[in-house]
Amino acid sequence: MRNLQLLKRVAVWEGLDIPEAVCIAVTVDSGIAFVATVTEIVALKSQTGELVSKVSIPVDAQTGGESTPVSLEYVFDQHAVCLITRDGKFLLWQYEMNAELEDVGEVTNGVTAVSWSPDFELVIVTTGDKRLLMMTSEFDIITETTLIPDQQGEDSNVAVGWGGRFIYTWSRECIFQARSEAVDGLQHSLSWKPSGSLIASVQSMQHAGSQQIVFFEKNGLRHGQFTIPSVSEKDLFVKQIMWNQDSTILMLHIDEYDGISKLDVSYIQLWTVNNYHWYLKQSLRFDSGVATARWDPENAHALYVATRGGQLVTYIWSWTTDHTRGAAAQDQSLVAVIDGSNILVTPMRLMLVPPPMAASTLVCPSPVNRVAFGPCPGSNDMIAYLSTGKMALFYSNDEGCTSEVSSDPQDEFKHIWKEPVLKGILDIKFFPEVKAVRATDLRHMLWVSKENIIMVAQGKSFSASVLLLGTIKLEESRIDFEGSVEMSSVILSLAFNQDTKNVAVELDDGTVLKYVPASKALTPWVNTQGRAVSFPSPCTQIALTCVGSEEVVLGLTERFRFFVHGIEIASNCTSFGVHNDFLLLTTLSHTLRCLPKSTKHTDLPKLSAEKTHPFDESCRRVERGSRIVTVVGDCTKVVLQMPRGNLETIHPRALLTSSLKKLMDGNNILEAFMTIRRHRINMNLLYDHNPKRFLERVDDFIKTINKQSYLNVFLTDLIEEDVTKTMYSASYSQEQKPHTSAQTQKVSKVDKICDAFLAAFQRLGVNQYIQSVLTAYARKTVPELEKALQLVWSLHGQEENSAEAALNYLLFVIDVNTLYDVALGTYNFDLVMMVAQKSQKDPKEYIPFLNQLRRLEENYRYYTIDKHLKKYSKALGHISKCGDEHFEECVGLVSEHNLHRQALLLYKPGSAQFKRLAILYGDYLWTKNRHEEAGIEYIKAEEWHQALEAFRRACDWQQVFCMAYRQDYSKSQLYELAVKVAGDLKSRQKYEDASTVLIDYAEDHEEAIVALVEGSHWKKALRQIHRFKRLDLIDTHLLPALKDSLEHHTVMLSSQRELFERYQDRLLVVRALKEKAAADLLESAATDYNDAEADLISDATSVTGASLPSTHSSRSTVFTKGTGSARTRRKAENKKWSLKEGSINEEFALVDALAKIIKAVDGLKEDINVLLKMLVQFNYDESAQDLQGYYNELLQMFQSAIPEIWVYSRNSSISGMSLGPNSTANAVAQALQKGHTLQSEEEQLDPVLLVPPTLDKDVHWKLHIATASDQNR
């Protein structure tokens, strides 16, 4: 679908008196062209015409006449020009030293043809005596053989034919391979495709009066052909055929003949192939004739033509796709393909026609070289620049167009578009202001308004250009070029913005200018920062569009670099397209990128081969080698062409979601729904896009869709998740959605929508939406199938078969066995029979079962049905109404299915049944070790002894003695009970409660005080000692316990300090080892880095903005992987925090252990405060001072150590290697090779390393009276 556009045309030798050229050669690097005539070789600069040097060719020594050149090539290795003449001379010219021609060899019998290999290592020569010579580039003969072998070649095929000429092929080793079949009329021209697949030649068809280009495989088999169209009434002769460097273009040099006399006119034609069809893309007419032509050996799209009139013309083409933008609905997104005098046009908005076919073929009187489409609103109009220097104008809205509806009343097909109609052929006229310009020498073409077009021509100098503004005068059948702007540089590309009416002019140095046709003003293009816009490299394709709020220039180079306003966005872009909301790029990594135009062009993300978001819809894979043909600007359609030529239409998700958001915001419900359905977008987007608005307009939604099957599809696809936060989160990440309250979020989304639909159906009439109502009932999180069946049953007696149809649909949605159980649960046996008849159940089974149920008492029948359906709670309600004779069955149901709480609610408190069930519940709770709750149930059952035992097990001593008094315990019984309960309490470290029980119920004051002393409740113990006048217990119990507590705290604090210092020292060692390992890694990276790794890193970083992802991260905002059982998690956590020396997380474990020590010691402040007071009170002042001093010293040590232990902030890294400004490519490569990972900061730092423990300063634990004198100072 691509055409060739002429980027640059430079003609030199204008007016110079030089004889007719025979051969052309071009240097690869300096742009110097060498032209050989029969008398001399001239070296000149191809872009300026400046003469570099020249040298005369010696005459033929035998005849004394001129030596006709056969081959002229620039041999790069020797920095010399090699000339081979027909008389057999091999001559070298060192043009840089202005030397004479050096004779390096000679073939005695003369030379008839010469060909150099593409790598210039070998040269093949055919001689006058029909010999074939293979030589090196230094002209040493490798092989010599006969030109016409008489033996069979290695790859020859057996063929039988009558006469004709042949094509012979040899291998690179000069081994004869094959001879083609006999071909009548085969001409002398021959060209082997550089890719090696085909050999092209010319066949004269005498009987048809035409000529064909025929192709052969290297084994001699015929491989297609095409006929050269007639471009003149004269006879045509193909003098030369030649492939370009990348084998994409075949050049034909054709001369006009009048019988046997050569005429002055010549043609250069450029042909391309796609889908096995050959297209004539360019046809150039030379009135002075063409002497010779050749392709540039380096630039595949550069062609040099030497005319017989003394000109050397350089042409540079590039590929382009001619299409309309498709920005408005009336724009049909036309794509035009040039094929000689035909223009193949297809409206991509409406249809996709695979090439070489097209929706319409527009015929012109002569070959077409360029096409342009009209500006809006006539964007479907087209103008074509012909090879004769005329214009063909096509209008799409002409009155003579084909009618939209076929005239045949039997024909139901309709024309869905109006093809453009030829309006006229226009001559080109130049006014005096435009000098020295010929109509056939124009290039570039923009149709900028209804009356005006812009074209470019070469200026007065070789490096100058003229920007021409022409006026279309249809009535006079001409275009007048009245205005021009002369520029000192070559204009490389033009682009037009339909919205702003501005033209971007790109010069060959990458500079971008702005031209306003209305005012004819030409100024440098300046961005919003006041800087001139230019491309770092010249771009062969440019376009204009708005990105953000600024009009920007887009450019794509031949080397796949894509720029936006001079900023490189991608270094691997193969094609681009402009959508109303996006920029679309295809890349060498076979992806299609969609970049939003709402972003500032300076903030556009740089391309990466990897997706940056788990649900990134801006990037999608495409077939290898795909290119963008056109993008329908206001739609979601993108047309791609594959390398083999076929077309494919895709609808990128980014374009779809953007379009859907506009449709939903504009309340275009039906179009949005059909788009979602057509492209398989998740239906939940209709609701999740704006939940509040959707629920407010449910009635409108139903009435607009107005088709039950569509409503059913929507309801069936409902899921709980918000798709704008999961699968389409990339399209909604920067948008602020309406806030949803926490209470609203608890309500099921599916239930909320189904309830809204059911309410709307009630308002609109249920009978119109029976199937949708049934679907809404069935789709709720807890399906309301009973209501659905009741609706089906209510249809009986209304319309014929309506109930049966509704039931059939419900059975389509719900399994019939499930529906049978639901019907049975309605206790409506007629409904059950109705459903059962649709199932595979045996009537011999379910009919007796139903009959048996009919005979039962009503409540017992309901109980039996519910129990059968395993609705045990509901069955319990029915069995409780069946009387005392079924109570044991009720007890069995409660025990079997743990329905104790429900059962107690069904009976009156205090009744025998209630007490029986309460005991049953208490026994159940006892088995579950819920003794306190079991005691409560025993109380309800008035089982006081069982309640007492349950409360005793629960250590609820208050309830225990309540139950004891309820049973009228004697004093001795209370004493025994109190001793037992106090023992239980002390075993559970509840010394204060034990003391209370012993005082209140056992009246044992000494044991009560001992309990308080054992629990270190010093003040309470002292209070009870004085209360009961037992001062003797101070010496016997209190003081010894104080001494033990002092010793315990002293030993514990000492051990904690020792452990803390050991862990802290080890932590310093671990961190020092890590720093050394990191330094060794960087050092080894600098010394061991080799060239192969450098190439690897260079390739890895060639994609702009590429990054290395973490290999350890499995985090996701939408998905959480299960972590196994609690025991497994604890085991993994203990393994992670291992203090074993050398373990991978030893630093984590050490810091965690230090934090636990600090927290444990800091938590002793209140206990130590009370202990210090008691010690001082009983004259242990020195011990109190020592304890307080040691504890204070330990806390101060912790406080000073915290900054040394917790050294990391949230922006620091602890891994051996991380990405950042201080990391190098060498270090990254070495880290990856050694197994290190590059992680994000959030993944590298554990919270235990970030958050240090804090000492509680609110607890005042110190005693002034226990402060030593040195501490006071």
Automatic annotation (TrEMBL):
Pathway assigned in UniProt: tRNA modification; 5-methoxycarbonylmethyl-2-thiouridine-tRNA biosynthesis
Start-end of Polar residues biased regions: 1104-1126
Source organism superkingdom: Eukaryota
Pfam families for the chain: A-sol_ELP1 (PF23925), Beta-prop_ELP1_1st (PF04762), Beta-prop_ELP1_2nd (PF23797), HB_ELP1 (PF23936), TPR_ELP1 (PF23878)
Ranges for region Disordered: 1104-1134
Location, primary (coarse class): cytoplasm
Domain ELP1 first N-terminal beta-propeller: 1-164, 165-298
This protein's GO CC annotations: cytosol; elongator holoenzyme complex; nucleus
Keywords of this entry: Cytoplasm, Nucleus, tRNA processing
Function, in words: Component of the elongator complex which is required for multiple tRNA modifications, including mcm5U (5-methoxycarbonylmethyl uridine), mcm5s2U (5-methoxycarbonylmethyl-2-thiouridine), and ncm5U (5-carbamoylmethyl uridine). The elongator complex catalyzes formation of carboxymethyluridine in the wobble base at position 34 in tRNAs.
Listed PANTHER family: ELONGATOR COMPLEX PROTEIN 1 (PTHR12747)
Keyword set includes Cytoplasm: yes
Boundaries of every ELP1 three-helical bundle domain copy: 1032-1205
The family this protein is said to belong to: Belongs to the ELP1/IKA1 family.
Domain called ELP1 alpha-solenoid: residue spans: 653-853
Sequence ranges assigned to domain ELP1 TPR in this UniProt record: 860-1023
Domain ELP1 N-terminal second beta-propeller: 337-629
Protein name from the UniProt record: Elongator complex protein 1
Cell compartment(s), UniProt: Cytoplasm; Nucleus
GO process annotations (BP): tRNA wobble base 5-methoxycarbonylmethyl-2-thiouridinylation
GO MF entry, a single one: tRNA binding
